[in-house]
């Protein structure tokens, strides 16, 4: 424990410094007085005794310094002196200080904000016990969800997991409490869902096996927020009956406060296999927990065995190309879609910081050149290079600290805006903010930059020739060839990094342009859309659905400013709605997931979708008339490449000769072929699609329809929202109006991620370009100032102004070309990281490379022109007289 007492003694010294100094002064005076008395006793007079005592005692100041060194931590005094000197130096150069701090604040602030997002999304562990044991189970190759038969067979035969559970989104449900009601989001889950996550309910229990079987009792688990908001945090809520979509559910549990799951929900209800079509679809997400001590590789080995068993047990129901299931860490799956975007953006901010640091290092070298005589004098007077290095370090760390504080303030304001602008979902289990970890990152960046800034001028100062520097006296002091080479290297680095960012921005901008050039197949002008959820008890049977659609269409057409109205179960570019479909009599011509659209008669007219052949569905196509359908061009080319689709028939609910009774749809005559439209995304080609009249929906199709979307063609979208909501409320006061937006906004949402990436990279590239231009300009301006005498001599010996101008321009263009070449090479090497974000453009796109090259050369030429012009105005006589 001796080290603790030593630390305590040193801390007491720092906190009570004045008292120790006073006691040291008194002790020295006591020793002098004792020596004085002894000298007097030996017969000396008073003055001689005092003088002899001081001579015998030694240098009083030196003794004080040695005593203080024995107290420890004397280096803190030296650092304090260096800090005071650094503050005075920076105060004398407010322009330099402000430029340096703002440059650092820009780089550190942007990196801190991006790290805040990355830490919350990619680095922070999931809020579950032993989150590393959680895995996602999905289809091999496609990474799609699993079917219920797969899940049940795998769960029964696998021994590598302590627990497993399936879950699906349950959509919007109407919760009725007394006379009030609220629409909530429900998630359907199997038993062991909470056990797999390692979460215990705050009240009650999780769903049991009986409740997750068809025909079992209906149960519900409330989230903490729903429990407090609608039930007043009643501790006796267990066993209480609540109504969801006119069905009674019993509350069996309440989730703990702070419970988080990627799929947000207000309540958990049972996921019940029915043995029907819904169970055969790949629509169930599965999460499992590995047994303690079991590795993922061991579990995958067992999975291969289970796959073969499943293939043998269900040979008649498994496709020949079935590959089985795979697993990977649950956290990796959550961040899989956003990881690359975030890392690329973080890389862009890191490049911006490097460019800013290069610019600032060049500025520091220029400043060191101006302090060359001061440095030389200090070294000549006995200051060690180590002492000088410490002085530089304190100054640069002070600058970095000020930049860090400014950057943290900027990051705090920037982070909220950045998160709100990010168009893709961030699977963050806690709020994204500047916390202690993010602040520690900012501190680490500031310290690293401070140390790097110290190394650059220190290496230059270490090679400083004292004789030459002292001889410079009143002339321009420089840092020699080493300093010039270092500054040139920094400028080349800035140009190279700027080139990389500019090419990335150019490729992303081209991607955005190509996406906007894609042909939609429908019009967007003047269209306002919204959705209404359908409840199974009120709207999801053929007659009720037809009546509901007709009443809404009639009421919306009566609104002022409305030209026409149409309905569809799923709008273009908003998702998938598919069912197995087969051409009648041709089992080989089947689509397991055909896009099925329920539409009103005016849909094609309102959307501006042309009919290639045949006719649209009309109001005469009712439930009493023969079933009809319209197919798109993609399906017509696939199933009738040489023949005519009109008059042929298709069957929804049949696949390769196998019927799915729960759909119960009759064969439909193809009466029209509609033009292709974008189905799910702008990047994907149109999918095979079948349009059927909403009035002819079968029982199975009606039951599978959860939402209806409404498309309103208006004379002006402004102010129509309130009228639409009132119209829906007049028909059904409990009906919700969701996703009210224009068709242009829907199209724009599909390019939101590309637009965000292009915008952010564009901003970073613009800043990098400005910094690179400043770097070239600063280097050449300093070079002209340093070479003033040389330029004067050249002009005195007959060099023309054009020759001098070429001399400076050649230097600037040479540095720009070298940096550009390195940047282009780096962009070619790193382009593969961008390939997954690009569309319609290659990572090595020659247009982007040529455009960036011309832009950078132009900026380099402009940045070089001003110093070159200044050099031509040097008066030889004044330059020589000055030197």
Comma- or semicolon-separated keywords:
six-stranded mixed beta barrel, 883 residues, alpha+beta, 28 helices, globular
> Helix fraction?
40-55%
Number of domains: 4
Rounded mean pLDDT score: 82
Total DSSP E strands? 23
Q: Unreliable runs, pLDDT <50, ≥5 residues?
A: 473-478
- Largest sheet: number of strands, sense, barrel closure: 6 strands, mixed, barrel
How far is the first residue's CA from the last residue's CA? 65 Å
Which structural class do the helices and strands define? alpha+beta
- Radius of gyration, taken over Cα atoms and rounded to an integer in Å: 38 Å
User: Can you count the helices?
Assistant: 28
Q: Which strand order spans the largest sheet, edge to edge or round the barrel?
A: 2-3-8-5-7-6
Q: Which descriptor suits the 3D outline?
A: globular
Summarize the structure.
It contains 28 helices and 23 strands. With 883 residues, the chain is α+β, with helices and mostly antiparallel strands.
Textual characterization of the structure:
- The chain is an alpha+beta fold.
- The chain folds into 4 domains: 2-72, no CATH class; 141-323, no CATH class; 338-516 and 752-882, no CATH class; 527-716, no CATH class.
- The protein is built from 28 helices and 23 strands.
- Helix 24 runs antiparallel to helix 26.
- The longest helix is centred in the middle third of the chain and has 41 residues, at 330-370.
- The protein starts with a helix and ends with a helix.
- The model is unreliable at 473-478 (pLDDT under 50).
């Amino acid at each position: 424990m001796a080290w603790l007492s030593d630390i305590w003694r040193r801390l007491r010294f720092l906190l009570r410094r004045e008292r120790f100094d006073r006691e040291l002064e008194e002790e020295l005076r006591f020793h002098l007085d004792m020596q004085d008395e002894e000298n007097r006793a030996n017969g000396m007079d008073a003055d001689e005794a005092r003088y002899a005592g001081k001579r015998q005692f030694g240098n009083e100041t030196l003794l004080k310094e040695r005593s203080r060194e024995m107290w420890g931590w004397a280096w803190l005094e030296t650092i304090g002196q260096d800090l005071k000197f650094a503050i005075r130096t920076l105060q004398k150069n407010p322009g330099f200080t402000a430029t340096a701090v703002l440059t650092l604040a820009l780089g550190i602030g942007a990196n801190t904000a991006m790290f805040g997002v990355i830490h919350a999304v990619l680095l922070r562990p999931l809020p579950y016990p032993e989150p590393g044991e959680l895995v996602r189970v999905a289809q091999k190759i496609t990474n799609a969800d699993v079917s219920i038969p797969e899940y049940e067979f795998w769960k029964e035969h696998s021994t590598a997991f302590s627990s497993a559970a399936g879950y699906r989104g349950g959509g919007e449900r109407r919760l009725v409490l007394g006379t009030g009601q609220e629409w909530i989001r429900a998630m359907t889950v199997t038993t062991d869902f909470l056990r797999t996550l390692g979460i215990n309910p705050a009240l009650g229990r999780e769903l049991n096996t009986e409740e997750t079987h068809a025909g079992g009792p209906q149960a519900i688990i409330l989230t903490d927020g729903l429990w407090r908001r609608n039930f007043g945090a009643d501790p006796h809520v267990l066993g209480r009956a609540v109504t969801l979509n006119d069905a009674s559910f019993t509350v069996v549990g309440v989730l703990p406060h702070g419970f988080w799951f990627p799929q947000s929900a207000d309540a958990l209800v049972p996921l019940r296999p029915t043995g029907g079509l819904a169970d055969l679809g790949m629509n169930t997400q599965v999460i499992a927990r590995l047994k303690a001590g079991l590795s993922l590789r061991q579990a995958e080995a067992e999975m291969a065995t289970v796959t073969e068993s499943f293939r043998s047990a269900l040979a008649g129901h498994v496709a020949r190309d079935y590959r089985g299931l795979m697993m990977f860490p649950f956290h990796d799956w959550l961040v899989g879609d956003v990881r690359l975007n975030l890392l690329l953006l973080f890389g862009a901010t890191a490049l911006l910081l490097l460019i800013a640091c290069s610019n600032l290092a060049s500025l520091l070298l220029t400043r060191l050149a101006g302090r060359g005589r001061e440095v030389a004098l200090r070294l000549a007077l006995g200051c060690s290079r180590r002492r000088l290095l410490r002085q530089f370090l304190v100054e640069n760390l002070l600058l970095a600290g000020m930049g860090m504080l400014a950057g943290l303030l900027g990051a705090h304001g920037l982070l909220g805006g950045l998160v709100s602008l990010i168009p893709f979902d961030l699977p963050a289990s806690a709020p994204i903010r500047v916390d202690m970890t993010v602040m520690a990152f900012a501190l680490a960046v500031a310290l690293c930059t401070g140390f790097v800034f110290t190394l650059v001028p220190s290496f230059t100062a270490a090679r400083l020739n004292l004789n030459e520097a002292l001889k410079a006296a009143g002339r321009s002091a420089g840092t020699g060839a080493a300093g010039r080479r270092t500054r040139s290297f920094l400028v080349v680095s800035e140009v190279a990094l700027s080139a990389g960012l500019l090419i990335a921005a150019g490729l992303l901008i081209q991607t955005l342009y190509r996406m906007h050039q894609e042909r939609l197949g429908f019009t967007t002008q003047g269209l306002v859309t919204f959705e209404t959820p359908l409840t199974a008890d009120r709207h999801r049977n053929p007659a009720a659905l037809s009546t509901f659609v007709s009443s809404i269409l009639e009421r919306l057409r009566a609104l002022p400013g409305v030209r026409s109205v149409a309905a569809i179960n799923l709008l273009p570019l908003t998702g998938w709605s598919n069912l197995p479909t087969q051409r009648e009599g041709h089992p080989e011509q089947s689509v397991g997931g055909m896009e099925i659209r329920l539409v009103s008669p005016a849909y094609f007219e309102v959307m501006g979708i042309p009919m290639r052949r045949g006719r649209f569905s009309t109001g005469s196509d009712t439930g009493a008339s023969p079933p009809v359908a319209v197919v798109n061009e993609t399906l017509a080319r696939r199933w009738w490449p040489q023949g005519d689709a009109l008059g042929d028939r298709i069957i929804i609910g049949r696949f390769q000769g196998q019927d799915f009774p729960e759909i119960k749809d009759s064969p439909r005559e193809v009466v029209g072929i509609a033009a292709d439209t974008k189905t799910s995304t702008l990047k994907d080609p149109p999918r095979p699609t079948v349009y059927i009249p909403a009035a002819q929906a079968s029982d199975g199709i009606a039951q599978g329809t959860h939402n209806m979307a409404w498309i309103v063609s208006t004379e002006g979208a402004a102010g129509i929202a309130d009228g639409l909501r009132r119209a829906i409320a007049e028909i059904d006061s409990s009906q919700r109006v969701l996703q009210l937006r224009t068709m242009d906004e829907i199209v724009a949402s599909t390019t939101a991620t590309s637009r965000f990436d292009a915008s952010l990279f564009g901003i970073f590239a613009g800043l990098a370009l400005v910094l690179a231009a400043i770097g070239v300009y600063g280097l050449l301006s300093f070079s002209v100032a340093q070479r003033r005498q040389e330029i004067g001599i050249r002009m005195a010996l007959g060099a023309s102004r054009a020759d001098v101008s070429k001399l400076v321009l050649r230097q600037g263009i040479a540095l720009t070309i070298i940096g550009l070449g390195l940047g282009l090479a780096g962009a070619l090497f790193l382009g593969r990281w961008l390939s997954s974000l690009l569309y319609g453009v290659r990572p090595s796109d020659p247009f982007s490379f040529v455009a960036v090259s011309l832009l950078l050369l132009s900026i380099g030429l402009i940045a070089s022109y001003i110093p070159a012009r200044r050099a031509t105005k040097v008066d030889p006589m004044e330059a020589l007289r000055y030197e």
